[in-house]
Amino acid sequence: MSMTIHSRILVAGSSGLIGSACVRTLQQFGYRHVLPPNRNELDLFSEEQVQSYFQKHR
Known about the structure:
Radius of gyration: 12 Å
Strand content: 5-15%
Strand order of the largest sheet: 1-2
Order of helices and strands: EHEH
Helix content: 25-40%
Largest sheet: 2 strands, parallel
Structural class: alpha+beta
């Protein structure tokens, strides 16, 4: 599988120093579907929330 500018990219920890830099860099390189959920939107410890988030952002 290869990544293109049309790929959906989930950035966990996007509100932190490294995560926010990753989001900015991906957007600067033209990636259009960067998904930077915060803790309120997505609890990675909840399988149900993860499945729901991915269904919504397919």
